[in-house]
Amino acid sequence: MYWRVGFAWSRSCALELGRNKSFSLGLSGSEEHLSLYGYIIAYPLQEYGGIMSALGFDSWWRKTLYITGGALLAAAAYLLHELLVIRKEQELDSEDAIILHQFARPKTGVPSLSPFCLKIETYLRMADLPYQNYFDGKLSPQGKMPWISYNKEQVCGTEFIIDFLEEKLGVNLDSSLSPQEKAISRAIIKMVEEHFYWTIAYCQWVDNVEETQKMLATNGPLSDLLRWILSQGTGSIVKREMYGHGIGRFSKDEVYSLMEKDMRTLATFLGNKKYLMGPRLSTVDAAVFGHLAQAMWTLPGTRPEQLIKGEFINLAMYCERIRRKFWPEWFVDVDDLYYDGLSEEPDSPSQLPDLGLYSRSGSFQEQESTLSHHDTPSPDSDVTGRSLFDSDMDTECSEMEQLK
């Protein structure tokens, strides 16, 4: 192995041979010595004419050129990225606009695989607040999703988002509830978000992860690999957090038993009411819908789908009622309202379109539909024969105006 010796002012090289040496210049027999302060260093060369040799003392200008060029390219790439980010933020951060940051739309037409993203977007539609989606996948500074930005303010956590919007914009879906009803509403929300959520997450990302993986929206030649990485990574996180929560320490059958108890509680409390707290919508409906919709439309053939479309059919009708009222662009097969044990994925699922800036006021009209009635229950009515089409739309619209 060959070695090259040089002089440096720092100890960034391989081997120090000496320090602060004085030596003769050797010019015309002169005995004058020159003192230099630094490090005499040595570094290996693989071979003459090799890479290390090319970067040696005799080609120092070439090394400088490589380093400078690389630094300039890195700086240019960074500046380009920042300019694109600033441009995107300028497009979105218009004054008094709610920017909703959430995960990308799944491939199957469901708005979101996240109960909390679906909850807050449904809440915005229930409150008739215009907003714009930003599917960047970037978590909030607290590591949460979803989160919103409004006039340069960032808020994460669905509960804090709703509190923020109520304070800033004066909306309140719970204004008609009594203090006792508000207490019941909060208890239901916490049961759903702190307990029932984990059973749904277990079914999505642990027990049924292969099917959930197919729903992830990724593009490019490595999309299959990326979907696998995302699903496996999410599954690992879910299992770890479930174990820390405590529910992950139980067996699969025990987890599903807890899920069934939660769904039975919701079905019993809902009964034959239109919404959970009565004839009017409230915040609890957005939270419960965001979670039950996962069982309805993202878990074909699983235990939660069997429960919601079978024994707890009133929950299925409840979800369908809200979907038709606030998600006109979200199409589902009406034959899919009942579980028959033969659930199959559509041959060519359509992705939910991004409507961009959304406002419910004047954006769509409830359409009357005439369907033939048979002796068996119609998909457009629940087991009591009640219509799902919200024939009292005008009355509810006037109620929504009063809430503001």
UniProtKB/TrEMBL annotation:
Region (Disordered), start-end ranges: 345-404
Metaxin glutathione S-transferase domain location: 260-322
Signal peptide: none
Composition bias type Acidic residues, residue spans: 391-404
Domain spans labelled Failed axon connections homolog N-terminal: 1-104
Record-level GO cellular component terms: cytoplasm
All copies of domain Thioredoxin-like fold, residue ranges: 115-208
Ranges annotated as biased composition (Polar residues): 360-370
Annotated family: Belongs to the FAX family.
Protein name (record): Failed axon connections homolog
